[in-house]
Structures are given as structure tokens and as C-alpha cells.
Amino acid sequence: MKQGNFGRILLKNILLALGIVLVLVFVVLKCLDFYTRHGKEVTVPDVKGLSTVEAQSFLTNQGLQGVVVDSTFVKNKPSGTILETIPPVGNRVKAGRTIYLTINSHAARLLTVPEVTDISQRQALAMLKSSGFERVVVKSVSGAYENLVVGLEDGRGKKVEEGARIAGDTPLYLLVSNGIGELSEDPENDGEFGESEL
Fold first, then answer.
1. 63-83: b or e for each residue (b if 16 or more CB lie within 10 Å)?
2. pTM beyond 0.70, yes or no
3. Does domain 110-177 sit in CATH 3.40.50.2300?
4. In CATH, what number does 41-104 get?
5. Would you list the domain boundaries of the chain?
6. Mean pLDDT, to the nearest integer, of 101-106?
């Protein structure tokens, strides 16, 4: 075989292999576009306030799937309704995407009361808040040490034991020693659950 013929055959084979690689890359890219639904996006609809069944039906009509993954309790919202979506309402997502739903539960979540006796008022408030309790009012009581927590009561004046499981929306009074031995209300709090809540 002559040197010139060998060079032409080699060049033809290289061009043929390059052509096959380019066709394969093109086919793979088209398959990926089809598989990932490239360019086919939908907007996450606003399903907040709808029941779970209504929301899932609405999402299905939009080419999406709805799955309940969490619940929380909001007192002034109807139970069983959608509170939040992930991704949030208005985001653009691919068709067929799963939208994760948070619903309003039927009752407040039960929380464990942390150990707050014999620590400072500030530390106790931080611990209660981090545990999920939001309706906390400081109540000053007679005692020898100023700003020392001596106990915890519910809104009816009943002692709340540390480690107890109670509803997260339970009103709590944090009993704090005033250091003067007299019974008095905290001047910043009037003992009502309103603006003075934590």
C-alpha cells in the first residue's frame, strides 16, 4: 500500500469518527432536553388558604404534584388549609415538579417546657422562645434575688412543671423575683397577654 493511500484512508476514518461523535452528542443533548423538559416551565400557583384536596387538584391541573410534608398551627386560620409552599408561590419550576405543602394543623403543637427555674430572666425568656413558646409575660414576685426566675405558671395561674408537654400557644407567666420581698407586677407588663408578650 502506498503512503498517499494510507494517509487518505486514515483521514477518512478520522472524519468518519468525528462525524459519529458529533451525531451522538447531538442525540444525547436532545434526549436530555426531552428528559428534563427543558424550556417547559410553569409558575407555582397560589394555593394558600385552599384545603389539601383542592390544592392538590389545582396543582395537578397545572402539571405539578402536591405533597404535604409539614404542619404548623396558626390560630386564626382554618385547620387543614395550606399555609406555605416550597418552592414559594410565583417561582418558575419544571412541569411535573413536586411542590411541598405546609398545612395548618387542627391543634397547636405540643412543646416541652424547658428548665427555667433558678436562672436569669433574660436567659429563661431566650430558652422559652427557642423552645417555641411565644406568649410569655414576666410577672414580678417577692423574693430575695432580683431577676431570678422562681417558677412558671399558665394563664390560669396553675404551676407549669419543667419537662411537661403543653400546647405551644399556651399563655405563660414567668415568675421573676424582684429582690425586695414585696409582691408587685412588672411595671412593663400589666399581666395581660397582648403587646407585652415575648
1. ebebeeeeeebeeeeeeebbb
2. no
3. no
4. 3.30.10.20
5. 1-35, 41-104, 110-177
6. 87
